[in-house]
Every structure is written in C-alpha cells, then in structure tokens.
Specification:
Length: 494
C-alpha cells in the first residue's frame, strides 16, 4: 500500500508525466540516429538539468533512456544500421523482414515487445530488487568469465551454416577488441605507433561500418534489384501472435533482467544472449533465423528493454551502476545530493517509487510513440538504391564523426565498411565479429582478474567448483557445447 501511495502521488504530477513523455519521444528519434547513443544524450542532460529539481531531472532522463534503447531498432530494421549497441541483434532478422516488404510489421512487433520487456523489467525492479541485487552481487570474476564464454558460444549460432567461418569472424572480433593500451600493464597492443589507437577502436564506429556502410557498399553492387514494396496493412501484432510468442517473450525478459542487473553487462549483451537462446529453443521458427524470423526480433527487443529495469536494480539497492547510462544517472543523483545504496528504500522510499513510476510512464509512452510514424518510416526502404545507399553512407559518416568528433573515426568506419563488405562478399557472417568486440573486455578483464585472485590458471579453473553458481554456469556451457556439436553434425549430415 505504501508503494501504491508514492506512485499515485507521482502519477498525479502532470509535469513529471510530461517530462517523461518528452524524454521518451526525443529518445526514440535520437536512438534511431546512428552515432547518437543514449549515454551521450543522458550525459548532456546532466549539465542541462543541473538547476532543476531532482524529480524533474530524473523523469526527463529516464524517458530518454527508455526511448533510446528502443529507437535503435528502427534504423536496424530499415537500414541495417543499429542506432544503438542494444539493437545489433534486432537487425539480424529485422532487416531481412524489411527486405521482404515487412518493415512495418517488424517495427510494430519491436514496439510491442519492447513494451512487454520494459514492464517485466520494472516489475522485477519493484518486487524483487533486493533478491536480484543479491544474486548479481554474488557473481565473482570467474562467473563473469563463464558468462562471457557462454556469450562466445553464440558464435556457432550466429555463424549461419558454417561454424568454422563463424569462429574465424569471432576471433577477428576478439583481436579488434584487444587493440589499445592494456588496462593493467599499460602496454600498447596493435596500435602500430598511432596515438589514436591507444584508447582502442570504438565499438559504435565498428558497428556503423560493419552493418550500415558495408551493407550500402554491398547493395551498390546489386543495383539491378528493385526496391521492395512495403506492406503496411498490419502494424500492431494481433493478440494471437502476442499470446503465441509470450513464452519466448518471458524467457527473453528474464535473460534481460538478469544480465542487466550484472554491473558492466548491459542491454547489448542481453540482446545477443537472448537471440542465441531463442535460436536454440525455437523448434519451428516463422522463418529461418537470419532470414526474417519474427522470433529474431522478439527476443532481442524484449531482452534489451527488460535490461533497463535490471540495470536500475544494483544502482538503487547497492549504488553500483548496471550499465553506462545508469552510471551517468548515478552521478546525476549525486549532483542533486541523493545517494543510492542499501538504505535507499528505507530512508528515501519516495525516490525509489518515483523512479519506478517514471519508468512505467516512459514504457507506456514508448508503446504510443513506437507505434506512430511506422508507415512513413517504412517508405524509406522503398527509396531507389541510387538515392538510398549514398544517403546511408552519408549518415554513416555523420554517425561515426558524432561519437568523438574525430576524423580518425570516419577513417576507421570505412575500414570496417570494407571489411564488412568482403565478409559479405565471401559469405562470412558479420555478427560473430561484432560479438567478439563486445565480449572481449568482459572476457579479458575477468580472466586476468580471476587469475590474479586465484594465484594461477589451475587455481582459477579450480575455483569454478567452489560455488554453486559457477558450477551451474559451467554445466550450462557444457550443455550448450554438446547441443552445438549436434547441430553442426546435422548440418554436415553425419
């Protein structure tokens, strides 16, 4: 009853509701622009809202956070350029759906599933915050290492019918992720004397080049193909579709909540892991994965939005941010004289429930704004290639430059565009390469930290069997490895 009391007070404040609506609307369209990430937008708002009340500032920033996570799906579906890292997996099947003339259906499905995922994450935050936070806090370095290894197991699923080529692409991604100054020894790795590379290759730059610009270059070699006429008769999925896919939505939301609650993981890893589990668990998909499966849109879009509520759990209950944006929100709360932590729910329950209420408002507005403008946006795919592909290249350049205002980023975007083009040209999957870049820091940092804590590599391996959580993750990896081997044998006809 106390929680309901605080939430109704918030919901009676028209200013807070309006700010959540404005933030969500702006976030949807900011997230759709390659290079303009949610962390960039929220960090700008910290200084912009410095003189505001804490409640008003939080309502606006939460709206932007919610909107940008979803907004990246639009450019991923229409142009194969993920507007945000969390939308990478959405493009695997979203873009093939657009190529089939089903862009409107894919965007409508993404909006409804994002709403379902967001609500599941908010419920987990409101009901089980202390429990989930305790679970996330129990993760050791070896557990994060096993989680990263589990993510690398998805290379087999993302590699199409050739696990070998998927492994090669994943290894290249891990190599790219190692570029820069070693965070522990300060040794420069693969920088070739270039100061620019000391900080490594920005993941968003690689993502824009590998997906957007590479696709544009590839399509320019196939100018004889005419644009596909889009079918925009059905935008909102039917109740039957929603109910049929509800088990997958709930499984994906659970993945999103748990991964989102792990400090440093985030929605991008949650989306990729949920995509992998959907591919493994779906016996009869609507189409082959990677060729326009509805399940390939449902799983990542549910998970990356569920990860929002998950990321707030350690931030509010432990004072530990779950991802980059909650780290910025944590600093914003500190600026306004508020200190999240174990005593937050007892000392400032109004703040906790205000955040929950703002998340609910943002989720509702996400559904409303996410279902608007779809028919207009779907016309983008019908634009002649001679106009659309150069426009995509221009947007890729702008997006790469917007990240750090560096001309070097534009250069590296084109390097990755050429790499992505040749990968497509010779039928190598791009997705495992991106997965390798994302997981490399998580894998490397926790491997080295685990070895230091255990004293040796054998000690690290032995520590796996000292915790029920580690043992469970270890046997789950064994199960995934065995099932992946069976899939490989089926493809080879053995």
């Amino acid at each position: 009853m106390e929680a309901l009391h605080y939430m109704t007070i918030v919901l009676r404040e028209p200013v807070l509701i309006a700010l959540a609506a404005v933030g969500t609307f702006a976030g949807v369209y900011i997230g759709a622009i390659p290079g303009l990430t949610g962390s960039m937008a929220v960090s700008l708002l910290v200084s912009f809202t410095f003189g505001w009340s804490a409640h008003n500032a939080l309502a606006l920033m939460i709206g932007v956070f919610m909107g940008t996570v979803f907004g990246g799906s639009r450019s991923a579906i229409l142009l194969n350029i993920p507007g945000a890292p969390a939308a990478v997996a959405t493009g695997f099947d979203g873009y093939p759906l657009a190529r089939k003339g089903l862009a409107a259906e894919a965007m409508g499905l993404a909006a409804t599933q994002s709403f379902i995922g967001a609500i599941c994450g908010i419920i987990a935050l409101a009901v089980g915050a202390p429990l989930v936070a305790a679970f996330a806090l129990s993760f050791r370095s070896v557990d994060y290492l096993l989680l990263a290894f589990m993510g690398l197991m998805a290379v087999g699923s993302l590699g199409g019918k050739s696990i070998k080529r998927g492994l090669i692409a994943g290894a290249v991604g891990l190599l790219v992720g190692c570029v820069g100054v070693d965070p522990q020894t300060a040794v420069r790795r693969f920088t070739f004397g270039l100061v620019y590379l000391n900080s490594g290759v920005d993941f968003v730059v690689a993502m824009i080049g590998l997906f957007g610009a590479a696709e544009a270059l590839f399509q320019l070699t196939q100018m004889q193909d005419k644009p596909v006429k889009q079918q925009a008769q059905r935008i909102i999925p039917s109740w039957r579709t929603t109910v049929n896919y509800l088990p997958l939505s709930l499984r994906s939301a659970l993945v999103g909540i748990l991964v989102g609650a792990l400090p440093g993981a985030g929605g991008d890893i949650a989306a990729l892991l949920s995509y992998d589990q959907a591919k493994r668990s779906t016996r009869h998909p609507s189409a082959p994965f990677g060729e326009g499966a509805l399940e390939g849109v449902i799983a990542p879009e549910t998970a990356n939005n569920a990860a929002i509520g998950g990321a707030f759990i350690p931030m509010l209950t432990l004072g530990i941010p779950g991802d980059a944006i909650t780290a910025i929100l944590l600093s914003a709360l500190t600026v306004h004289g508020l200190q999240p932590g174990p005593n937050l729910m007892s000392s400032s329950p109004d703040l906790f429930w205000l955040i929950v209420a703002c998340l609910v408002c943002a989720a509702v507005f996400l559904l409303l704004f996410g279902l608007t403008g779809i028919r207009l946006f779907s016309k983008i795919v019908e634009t002649p290639k001679g106009i659309l592909m150069p426009l995509i290249l221009v947007l890729s350049v702008i997006g790469a430059f917007a990240i750090r205002s560096s001309l070097y980023d534009i250069l590296w975007m084109f390097v990755f565009a050429l790499l992505g083009y040749f990968l497509k040209r010779y039928d190598y999957p791009v997705s495992p390469l991106v997965l390798g870049i994302i997981l490399c820091p998580l894998f490397e940092n926790n491997y080295r930290r685990g070895v230091m804590l255990a004293g040796s590599l054998p000690g690290l391996l032995g520590s796996i069997f000292t915790s029920p959580l580690s043992v469970a993750l270890f046997f789950l990896i064994i199960f995934l490895l065995v099932s992946q081997t069976k899939v490989y044998r089926n493809w080879r006809g053995l």
